[in-house]
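Data availability (excerpt). The following record was deposited with the supplementary files.
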Amino acid sequence: MKKYQYSCRLIFLCVCFWLLFPISAWAADYIASYNPRALRIAYGFDREFPPFSYEDPGGKPVGFEIDIIESIFRGRATLVLRPLNWYSLPLELSSGTITLTTGMIKTPQRAKSYGFSDLATFDLKMRFFTKVYKRVPNPDFLRGQMVSVEEGSFQQSLLESFGGINVKPFKTRALALRALYNDEVDAYCGQDEPSYYVLRKLNYGGITILGAPLGVAEMRVAVNRDRGDVLRMVNEGLRELVASGEYDRLYRKWFITELDDQEARSMVEAARKATINSYAPYGKVNRGAAILTATGKVLSGSNIENKNPALGISALCAALARCIGENELEPRAVVLLDQNGKILAPDQDDLHMLLEFGRGILVIMPDGQGKMSAKLLAELIPNPVTGKIAR
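Predicted structure:
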């Protein structure tokens, strides 16, 4: 009889636990929503992925994605930052040792193991880099040439499958770029912003991109699959960052080299001279545009009218075409002027054309007080469209 009573009690306790566990989990989430410090988030990041996530000389975690995650969870939870090696992050995330990570590309296989943010944190491009005086029309001309790459990276396997290229791997991205700078190789292949970071840090000049990107990857926040509550917070936080303009502020902080006064004046003067060459027999609207490239060139263009308005060419498109013709594929900033020297805001067609070359282009705009200000292209056209490759 006692044995029977013990079994009944055990069954009763199991049923109570089964019924109460969801309530207790809900209660924990409810309490955490009113006391953000009660919720602890373990954020594991790649400690060697500048400028996205890395440790400064003092060991402090810094980077674009560090700022993004700290902004999302500020006031929402206690954030614990854990610097890790990239290759250990997936295992740590799967086991729940860390709650989330950043810089991960969503693939069908990974989507089975992790939750991913709805919005991408960054569009990472895979590119060829070469010396300015070694430019060739397109990557096909690199066949038979020596190309440096970071050892063990995705781009190494990409180059090996490309065929005909003599791939020379180096232990680090910095060493691979140094080989290009010292003319030990003809080109380098790597991810754009991490490569730009090294070039700026080492002050390597005379290096530019070659041709169109090999692909574009959408980097996202990846969350442990059992933490749907955290994923909801990430999605809500990212939407708030974009809507408030905080995302663009952080993007500008980490990736944009601001214009100095001399650069701005040179652009405005080039655009003013371009208005003289405008072909506008129908609308009598003369416009000129100028584009400052990453190599320091200022190239201008004039609008070309046509009896059929659909066949007309805007001044900015003319300037952009000139950039392409001179193999200058990295616009840094643009400006558009009318025949009276007034700075104009580009129309949406021009902005979408520029977007093909990066969301970080600076657009000189009128401020309504007779002065000029520079806005990010992304502020004028949010949510650029990208493709996908794996990292």
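Summary of structural features: The chain has four domains: 1-28, 29-121+219-255, 123-217, 261-380.
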